[in-house]
Design goal:
The chain is mainly alpha-helical. The protein has three helices and no strands. This is Integral membrane protein.
C-alpha cells in the first residue's frame, strides 16, 4: 500500500503544472480595464473626450491584451 502512494507521488511530481499566476494577474487586469471602460462609457457618453485620450485608452487596452496573451503562452 505504501509503495502505491510513493509511486503515485512520484508520478504526480513528474507531471506538475506550470504556475499560472501571471496569467491570472494579466487576465484579471484586462477584465478590470474592460469593466472600468464600460462604467466610464455609461456615465459619460462623450468618453473619451479628446483624440489623445482615445489613443491612450486604446493603447492601454492593446498593452493589457498583449500581456494577457503572452502570459497564457508562457504558462502553457
Amino acid at each position: 500500500m505504501l509503495s502505491a502512494f510513493i509511486a503515485l507521488a512520484a508520478e504526480t511530481a513528474e507531471h506538475h503544472e506550470p504556475d499560472k499566476t501571471a496569467f491570472y494577474v494579466g487576465g484579471g487586469l484586462l477584465a478590470a480595464w474592460a469593466v472600468v471602460l464600460g462604467g466610464l462609457g455609461m456615465v459619460s457618453p462623450e468618453f473619451p473626450k479628446t483624440d489623445g485620450a482615445a489613443r491612450g485608452v486604446v493603447g492601454i487596452g492593446v498593452i493589457l491584451t498583449i500581456v494577457a496573451m503572452a502570459t497564457v503562452l508562457l504558462t502553457a
